């Protein structure tokens, strides 16, 4: 139907006989005519449009509608520029079983298939429905000639109602804007219509000139953006998905496709409790949702225990994910790439291949940063969430923040720093190292397989250390350790005491008595290292020269560096019949005390 939208306010329709006997939900007014016909005797106006009826009906059925009938119409339209009329033959289809967006989509397919400027739809509604913007009048006793003459004689009605469609039957069906209802009734009466028998139907009319930005096509909910910056919200509300003012029943589609095109666009995903954001080629995928062109993705889960996973999205248009997980015990995982990554969690969120910003995080929420492959540097500098750093394959550096963190190594060399707080460190299967510094608090460290080491660094103050089986203490701090082969302890400045048990569970305990920063000399303070022998018969060997002394023969080799004569090594052999060979020890390296 060739409708010039800027001047359209209504559509007059003269149908074949009375309205259909069957009630229906909506109507579609359409034609296959593309010519401008000015002669009412033109033979093209005699076409019954049988082939068009079949093809348009097929498109309606394919779109999910049911055709309840079709009436042949002859259109009469007023051309204001020439003060004359043009003519067109068309059909009106009575349609059931369609939602408003489906009605629009069906009409747009008919429009595109038959190269029309627009197609008119009328969705029947209760009079009280807020969507009502038009009325359809059925007025008997009007002829086509009377309609044509009336349009030529009543300029106001012609310009506001624009035109309509007529047949030889004498029923006038008039689709007019709601505010033109009285004008349309007066015009129908003026041209001879029996308005005492007129019937009125309320509804929502639309001149369809292109696809809806949001629609259902072949079991897919399609959301199209524009070239302008915009924000679009997908809200999951039980059995419906709301996009702006439109709501779509979930049973109507299996997939959702979002294309936001150009511009700085934001897609808001609301109401999903578990969200997994991943890359699929150059598009973002969230379960059944495919997203293209969204620069910022905002996830709003609502209150409760929610889960969010964000993959490496660097191959897509999405450079930022903002997560508002609401109140509750929430879990979020941010993944790196298979390459070398630097991923940090700070006041501005997670900086990595994808920037992830958390709105109003809670200390009870748990964040996992998974480096995946490559040699990664993973770090945290805030305690707004409980953090887990998982290195994955590769040589990784893991730096915890001020909170209670969990650090997990993987295949490859891992260097883990727990930082302040009660941290849990699990190293991987290769040669790994965990580091602890004075002030880091009580940590738990598991070395796992292979040879792993623990680096301890004190402060330039008098401190007390104890290295026992499964436990290392620093003043009031306690480290619980397992499956570690080596301890490297830098005591720092001050008169420090280091006590090493007879079976500490390590192969090597290396003690540096240097101050900080480390220099070739000692710290000038009187430090003391105490090594316990076993209850049995020990055969110990002490070697030493310059500033280094090494004691062997116990479960752990004890190596002392940066020693000074003012420092003391005490060897408590216990009750057994023990022997200490000092033949390779140079007196003066460190003060020596052997207790029987």
Describe the structure.
This protein has 596 residues and is mainly beta. Among the domains are: 5-208, no CATH class; 451-596, no CATH class. Helices cover 9% and strands 44% of the residues. The strands form four sheets. The protein has a 20-stranded mixed β-sheet. A hairpin with a 2-residue loop joins strand 10 and strand 11 (220-224). Helix 1 packs across helix 2 (100-113). It is rod-shaped. The termini are far apart.
Percent of sequence in beta strands:
35-45%
The class by helix and strand makeup works out as mainly beta
How many helical elements?
A: 5
Any low-confidence stretches, pLDDT <50, length ≥5? 1-22
Task: Summarize the amount of helix as a percent range.
Answer: under 10%
Cα radius of gyration in angstroms: 41 Å
Main sheet? 20 strands, mixed
N-to-C terminal Cα separation, in Å? 111 Å
- Tell the overall outline: rod-shaped
Mean pLDDT value: 90
SS elements, strand count? 49
Organism: Solirubrobacter pauli
InterPro entries: Hemolysn_Ca-bd (IPR001343), RTX_toxin/Mannuronan_C5-epim (IPR050557), Serralysin-like_metalloprot_C (IPR011049)
Keywords: Secreted, Signal
Protein name: Hemolysin type calcium-binding protein
Quick summary:
With 596 residues, the protein is mostly beta strands. It is built from five helices and 49 strands. The strands form four sheets. The protein has a 20-stranded mixed beta sheet. A 13-stranded mixed beta sheet has the order 25-24-28-30-32-34-36-40-42-46-45-44-48, with no helix packed on it. Strands 1-7-3-4-2-5-9-6-8 form a nine-stranded mixed barrel, surrounded by five helices.
């Amino acid at each position: 139907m060739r409708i010039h939208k800027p001047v359209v306010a209504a559509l007059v329709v003269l149908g074949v006989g009375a309205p259909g006997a069957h009630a229906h939900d909506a109507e579609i007014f359409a034609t296959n005519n593309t010519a401008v016909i000015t002669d009412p005797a033109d033979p093209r106006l005699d076409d019954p449009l049988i082939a068009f009826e079949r093809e348009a009906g097929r498109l309606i059925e394919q779109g999910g509608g049911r055709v309840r009938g079709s009436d042949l119409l002859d259109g009469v339209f007023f051309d204001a520029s020439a003060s004359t009329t043009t003519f067109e033959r068309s059909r009106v289809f009575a349609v059931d079983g369609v939602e408003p967006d489906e009605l629009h989509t069906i009409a747009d397919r008919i429009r595109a298939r038959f190269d029309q400027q627009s197609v008119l739809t009328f969705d029947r509604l209760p009079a009280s429905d807020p969507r009502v913007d038009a009325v359809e009048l059925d007025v008997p006793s009007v002829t086509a000639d009377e309609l044509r003459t009336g349009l030529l004689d009543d300029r106001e009605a012609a310009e506001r109602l624009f035109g309509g469609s007529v047949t030889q039957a004498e029923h006038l069906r008039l689709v007019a804007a709601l505010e033109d209802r009285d004008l349309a009734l007066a015009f129908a009466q003026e041209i001879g219509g029996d308005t005492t028998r007129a019937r009125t139907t309320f509804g929502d009319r639309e001149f369809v000139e292109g696809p809806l930005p949001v629609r259902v096509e072949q079991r897919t909910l399609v959301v199209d953006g524009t070239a302008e910056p915009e924000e679009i919200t997908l809200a999951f509300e039980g059995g419906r998905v709301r996009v702006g003012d439109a709501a779509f029943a979930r049973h109507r589609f299996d997939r959702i496709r979002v294309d936001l095109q150009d511009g700085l666009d934001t897609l808001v995903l609301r109401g999903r409790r578990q969200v997994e954001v991943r890359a699929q080629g150059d598009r973002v995928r969230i379960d059944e949702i495919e997203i293209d062109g969204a620069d910022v993705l905002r996830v709003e889960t609502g209150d409760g225990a929610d889960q969010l996973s964000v993959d490496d999205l660097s191959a897509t248009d999405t450079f930022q994910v903002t997560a508002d997980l609401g109140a509750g015990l929430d879990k979020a995982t941010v993944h790196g790439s298979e390459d070398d990554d630097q991923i940090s969690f700070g006041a501005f969120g997670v900086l990595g291949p994808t920037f992830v910003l958390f709105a109003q995080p809670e200390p009870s929420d748990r964040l996992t940063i998974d480096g995946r492959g490559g040699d990664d540097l993973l770090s945290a500098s805030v305690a707004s969430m409980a953090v887990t750093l998982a290195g994955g394959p590769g040589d990784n550096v893991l730096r915890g923040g001020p909170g209670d963190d969990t650090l997990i190594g993987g295949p490859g060399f891992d260097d883990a720093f727990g930082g302040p707080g009660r941290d849990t460190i699990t190293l991987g299967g290769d040669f790994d190292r965990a580091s602890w510094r004075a002030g880091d608090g009580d940590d738990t460290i598991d070395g796992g397989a292979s040879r792993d080491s623990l680096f301890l660094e004190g402060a330039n103050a008098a401190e007390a250390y104890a290295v026992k089986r499964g436990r290392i203490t620093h003043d009031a701090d306690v480290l619980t350790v397992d499956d570690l082969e080596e301890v490297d302890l830098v005591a720092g400045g001050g008169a420090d005491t280091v006590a090493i048990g007879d079976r500490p569970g390590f192969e090597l305990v290396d003690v540096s008595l240097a101050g900080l920063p480390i220099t070739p000399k000692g710290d000038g303070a009187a430090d003391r290292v105490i090594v316990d022998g076993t209850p049995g018969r020990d055969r110990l060997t002490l070697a030493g020269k310059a500033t280094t002394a090494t004691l062997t023969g116990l479960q752990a080799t004890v190596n002392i560096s940066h020693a000074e004569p003012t420092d003391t090594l005490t060897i408590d052999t216990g009750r057994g019949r023990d022997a200490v060979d000092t033949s390779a020890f140079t007196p003066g390296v460190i003060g020596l005390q052997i207790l029987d």
